[in-house]
Design goal:
The complex is a heterodimer.
Chain A (H helix, E strand, L loop, with lengths): L1 H16 L13 E4 L2 E4 L10 E4 L2 E4 L5 H10 L42 H10 L7 H8 L12 H11 L28 E2 L38 H11 L10 E2 L3 E2 L6
Chain B lengths: L11 H29 L42 E2 L19 E16 L2 E8 L8 E4 L3 E8 L10 E2 L18 E8 L4 E6 L5 H6 L3 E7 L9 E10 L9 E2 L4 H5 L5 E4 L12 E4 L3 E10 L4 E6 L3 E5 L7 E4 L1 E4 L3 E8 L4 E7 L2 H6 L3 E7 L18 H19 L4 H15 L1 H4 L17 H5 L1 H10 L1 E7 L2 E7 L7 H11 L12 H10 L9
Helix pairs in contact in B: 5-6, 6-10, 9-11, 10-11
The chains are: A alpha+beta, B alpha/beta.
Chain lengths: ~270, ~525
C-alpha cells in the first residue's frame, strides 16, 4: 500500500521533470488520426452515461519496438535498466535485452518492446512530444477491424481476439506490423501484446471479478467489471482485467505500449 | 487501493435488487433451512473431534452433534516451526496432516498457462494452478494458519487470483491475490472450518478462467484427522468449451458462446479424456479401502457422480462434516465437493461416470478404477448364463428367418410360409382382423372361412398391397370400412401372411409366392401416401 502511494507521488515527479519536446504541426506519418467520436465503451463513463466520447487524436500505427526504445534509452541514460530509479521500474525492466544498451540475440529490433513500466512508457512518449493514449482512445481504435470502425458485434471478430488468448506465450513475440491494418491504418491492437494506457489506474476492475452491486464490496466479492457495461465483451474486458492487475512499476513479458498525441488535430 | 478515478457506473439499482434478493433468501433459509438440515443429516458426526493438547476454542453452547463450525475452529496461534505444505498433482492426495496442534502452513502455488491434450490429438490451452487440471491438492488441518503464496509464471498472458472456499473472508482470498504475470501475491488465513473445499480463479472473466481449468481442492482436516484408508484419490470434474466439435483435432480455442449457452464440448474428470483410463486408471486391490476426494469445478454443470458397480459405503455429502451411508450416486454442485469411501470386494474395472450419461459416453466424463485380486464368487458370480433372450420377438424372428433362408435356397414349403406369415400377421393384421381371423362384425370383415378372401387370390394380394376402401360383401354381410395399404411390407412378408390366412381357421388354399406379390405391386397403382 505504501509503495503504491509512493508510486503515485513519483509519477507526478516524472511528469514534471520530463522534458516536453516542441510540438510539430502534423503528427508523424507513423501515427494515424482518429476521431472524434462517441461509442459504447465496455466501461461506462459515469452514472447514467452510456456512451464514451473521444476527441480527435493521433495514435501510433504500431506498438513501440525494441529498436525505438533502444534509441530512447541511449538518448536518455536515466532510463537504462542499470540506471533506472527502482521506483520507476521493477528488476525485470528490459530484462529481455542482452545489455542496458544492446538488444543482443534475444530481442529482435522489430519486436514490440515489452518489460517496460508505465513510467518508462510514459517517459518515452513524452520524449516524442506525445503521450500514452487514454483507455477510451485505445478502446475506440481497437473496436475497428479492416473494414468497419466498430466490429465488436461480429462473432468472428470476437473469436479472432479470443484466439490470441488461446495461445500460450512461451515462444518469442512476432515482429510488429504483422496483423492487418484496421480502418484507421492501425495494426496490432489485438493479437500481439497488452498495451499500457495513460489512465490504466482508473480501470477499477476489482481484483476479484465477481463484484457487483454493493460499492462497499468493490474491493472483494466481485465483478469482472463491476463497472463493465457489456459483460459479453470478454475480448476487451480481459484487457481491462490485465491492466487493473498492474502497478505502475510493473513490467511483464507481454506488455508493451504505443503513443498518442493531439498534434495536428483541429480544435 | 487505487482511487476510483472514472468509469464509475450507477450501481444503485442492482444494489437494491441484490439486497432484496438477500432478504428473500434469508427468509427462506430461516423458514425451511434449519428444519430441512436437521431432518436430512445423520446425527452421527462424520468425524469426531479428538481431544488434543491445544488451546480451547471460545466456549459456545452447542446442540448435540454440532461441531460448532468456525466458532469452534480456532485453536489459538500457530505452534512450532512453519511447515511447507506438500502439494500433489491429481489423482494423488498429500499425506495426512497427522498433527495435534495448529501450525503455520506455507502454501506455494504457481499459476501456469499450458498447452496440453484435452483428448487424443486435440490440444487446448489450459490455465492451471500448479500445471495440472485440476490444480494441486492442498491439505491442512482445521485451525491452521495458512500463509498463501500465489505466483503467476512470467510466461503467463493473464493476471490471475485465487478464491478458496475454505477461507473465511471477503472474496475467499481473491482480493488479496490478484497477480500480474511474473509476480507473486501473499495472504494469510486461518482455516476455521473443516471440510473439503473448492478453490478457483476469480479474475475477469471468471467463467472463462474456470472453464480453462483454474480450480482445485483444499482439504481442511478435522482436528482428529480421518480414519486411515489404503488409498486416497483426487478426482475433479469440469466442463470444457471448444470451437471445434468433440474430438476435432488440432489446437482448439475456447468457445465463449458455447460456455454462455452451457453447452460443453467436453465433460471431463481431471482435465483430459483418458486422464483416468488405461495406464492412468486408479488402482486398488480387493480387500482394500478407498477414499475419493471428488470436486466439481464447473463452470456450469452439476455432476451426478457415480461409480458403476460400486456402492459408496459413506459419502460426506457436499464435502461437509457428516456422512450419508450406502449411496449409489452423489450430486456434486459446480464449485462443490464430496468425499466418498468404499471397500473393494470384487476385482474388475469400475467406471467413474457423471450419470448424466451422454456426458459420460459422448463428452468424455469417464474414468476407470481398476481393482485387482482374487475373484469373490460369493459376492459376485460373474456370468453364469449367456443365452439369447429376445422374448416373443425372438420366436417371431426365428420362423421368419427360416422362411427367408428357405426362399433364398428355393426350398420354401407351405408350412414354413404359414409359420412365418403367422409371426407377421400377429401385430400387423390381427389388430383389426383379430388373432382368430374372425374380424369384428360390421366393422372389420372376417378372414376365417371368408368367401371374399378365398374367391380371388390376386385380388387378395392387391387388397393387402393397395388397401381397400368402400363397400364389400363378406359372407353375406356388408362392410364399408377402410383398410390402409400395407405396401411397407416386403413381397416375402405379404406372401407369407396371405399364405397363412389362406391356410388357417378353416381356410384351405395354395401358397402365395413373392413373385405373385411383386407382379401385383408392379401392375397396380397405390393410393397417394402409401409406401413403395
Amino acid at each position: 500500500m505504501f509503495i503504491e502511494r509512493q508510486g503515485w507521488w513519483a509519477g507526478v515527479v516524472v511528469a514534471s521533470i520530463a522534458a516536453t519536446m516542441p510540438a510539430s504541426a502534423q503528427p508523424p506519418v507513423s501515427r494515424a488520426v482518429i476521431g472524434p467520436g462517441t461509442f459504447a465503451s465496455v466501461l461506462a463513463p459515469g452514472a447514467g452515461v452510456k456512451e464514451a466520447t473521444v476527441r480527435r487524436y493521433a495514435l501510433d500505427r504500431e506498438p513501440v519496438t525494441n529498436a525505438q526504445f533502444l534509441a530512447f534509452v541511449q538518448a536518455n541514460p536515466q532510463w537504462q535498466r542499470d540506471r533506472v530509479a527502482k521506483l520507476f521500474a521493477e528488476p525485470t525492466y528490459l530484462s529481455q535485452w542482452a545489455g542496458p544498451t544492446s538488444l543482443g540475440d534475444t530481442a529482435r529490433p522489430n519486436q514490440p518492446v515489452t518489460h517496460v513500466s508505465w513510467y518508462a512508457a510514459r517517459a518515452y512518449c513524452q520524449a516524442q512530444g506525445a503521450r500514452l493514449p487514454t483507455w477510451y482512445e485505445w478502446e475506440y481504435a481497437a473496436a475497428a477491424d479492416e473494414t468497419r470502425s466498430d466490429a465488436r458485434q461480429d462473432p468472428a471478430w470476437k473469436e479472432r481476439i479470443l484466439g490470441w488468448y488461446a495461445q500460450t506465450s512461451g515462444g518469442a513475440l512476432p515482429d510488429v506490423g504483422r496483423t492487418p491494418a484496421n480502418v484507421y491504418g492501425v495494426r496490432d491492437l489485438h493479437g500481439l501484446v497488452w498495451e499500457w494506457v495513460e489512465d490504466y489506474t482508473g480501470l477499477m476492475v476489482s481484483s476479484d471479478s465477481r463484484n457487483q452491486g454493493d460499492p462497499e464490496k468493490l474491493k472483494f466479492c466481485g465483478a469482472s467489471a463491476l463497472s463493465a457495461e457489456n459483460r459479453d465483451e470478454y475480448a476487451v474486458l480481459m484487457r481491462v482485467a490485465m491492466l487493473s492487475a498492474l502497478e505502475a512499476n510493473y513490467t511483464t513479458a507481454n506488455l508493451g505500449f504505443r503513443c498518442a498525441s493531439d498534434e495536428g488535430v483541429q480544435p | 487501493m487505487r482511487a476510483l478515478v472514472s468509469f464509475t457506473p450507477d450501481r444503485q439499482p442492482s444494489r437494491q435488487v441484490n439486497i432484496h434478493m438477500t432478504r428473500i433468501t434469508n427468509a427462506v433459509a430461516a423458514t425451511f433451512g434449519v428444519a430441512a438440515i436437521t431432518a436430512l443429516v445423520s446425527h452421527a458426526p462424520g468425524w469426531a473431534p479428538i481431544a488434543s493438547a491445544e488451546a480451547k476454542p471460545a466456549a459456545v453452547a452447542l446442540a448435540p452433534g454440532d461441531t460448532g463450525g468456525s466458532l469452534k475452529g480456532d485453536f489459538g496461534p500457530p505452534k512450532g516451526a512453519p511447515i511447507k505444505a506438500v502439494l500433489t498433482s491429481p489423482p494423488h492426495v498429500p499425506p495426512a496432516v497427522n498433527r495435534n496442534y495448529p501450525a503455520r502452513v506455507i502454501v506455494e502455488l504457481e499459476v501456469r498457462e499450458v498447452e496440453k491434450e484435452i483428448s487424443e490429438g486435440v490440444k487446448y490451452t489450459f490455465w492451471t494452478f500448479g500445471g495440472t487440471v485440476p490444480g494441486s491438492f492442498i491439505r491442512v488441518r482445521q485451525g491452521d494458519t495458512v500463509e498463501f503464496h500465489l505466483r503467476n509464471h512470467p510466461s503467463s498472458k493473464m493476471p490471475h487470483n485465487i478464491d478458496l472456499h475454505g477461507v473465511t473472508g471477503p472474496g475467499g482470498g481473491a482480493t488479496s491475490s490478484f497477480t500480474a504475470p511474473g509476480h507473486e501475491s501473499q495472504f494469510t488465513f486461518k482455516a476455521l472450518n473443516q471440510g473439503l473445499y473448492v478453490y478457483h480463479c476469480a479474475t475477469a472473466p471468471v467463467g472463462m478462467h474456470v472453464a480453462n481449468g483454474m480450480y482445485g481442492l483444499i482439504l481442511v482436516e478435522p482436528p482428529g484427522g480421518f480414519p486411515k484408508v489404503d488409498h486416497e484419490f483426487y478426482v475433479m470434474q469440469g466442463d470444457f468449451y471448444t470451437t471445434g466439435k468433440y474430438r476435432e483435432k488440432g489446437l482448439q480455442p475456447f468457445d465463449m458462446q458455447k460456455a454462455i449457452d452451457e453447452n460443453p464440448t467436453y465433460v471431463l474428470f481431471n482435465g483430459a479424456e483418458g486422464a483416468l483410463v488405461g495406464d492412468n486408471a486408479l488402482k486398488a486391490k480387493t480387500g482394500e479401502s478407498v477414499r475419493m476426494y471428488i470436486g466439481n469445478g464447473g463452470p456450469n454443470l452439476v455432476s451426478s457422480f457415480h461409480v458403476i458397480g460400486e456402492i459408496f459405503d459413506k459419502v460426506w455429502f457436499e464435502g461437509g462434516t457428516r456422512f450419508q451411508e450406502n449411496v449409489q450416486t452423489t450430486l456434486i454442485p459446480a464449485g462443490g465437493s464430496a468425499i466418498a469411501e468404499f471397500h473393494a470386494e470384487v476385482p474388475g474395472s469400475y467406471v467413474l461416470v457423471d450419470h448424466s450419461l451422454f456426458r459420460a459416453f459422448n463428452k468424455g466424463a469417464l474414468g476407470i478404477l481398476k481393482i485387482d485380486g482374487e475373484e469373490n464368487k460369493l459376492v459376485y458370480s460373474g456370468k453364469e448364463v449367456d443365452s439369447v433372450y429376445l422374448g416373443d420377438y425372438a420366436a417371431e424372428q426365428g420362423v421368419v428367418a427360416v422362411a427367408a433362408s428357405a426362399a433364398e435356397s428355393g426350398t420354401l414349403t407351405l408350412d414354413q410360409q404359414v409359420k412365418a406369415g403367422e409371426a407377421r400377421y400377429t401385430g400387423t393384421c390381427s389388430v383389426c382382423h383379430q388373432a382368430n381371423g374372425a374380424g369384428l362384425e360390421g366393422v372389420f370383415p372376417p378372414l376365417a372361412q371368408s368367401d371374399y378372401l378365398m374367391a380371388d387370390k390376386k385380388r387378395s394380394i392387391a387388397v393387402v398391397v393397395n388397401g381397400l376402401t368402400g363397400k364389400v360383401d363378406v359372407n353375406g354381410k356388408s362392410y364399408d370400412s377402410i383398410m390402409p395399404p400395407m405396401s411397407q411390407l416386403t413381397d416375402d412378408e405379404i406372401a407369407n401372411i396371405l399364405t397363412y390366412v389362406r391356410n388357417s381357421w378353416g381356410n384351405k388354399g395354395e401358397a402365395v409366392t413373392a413373385a405373385e406379390v411383386a407382379e401385383v405391386r408392379r401392375t397396380t397403382p397405390r393410393p397417394a401416401g402409401a409406401a413403395h
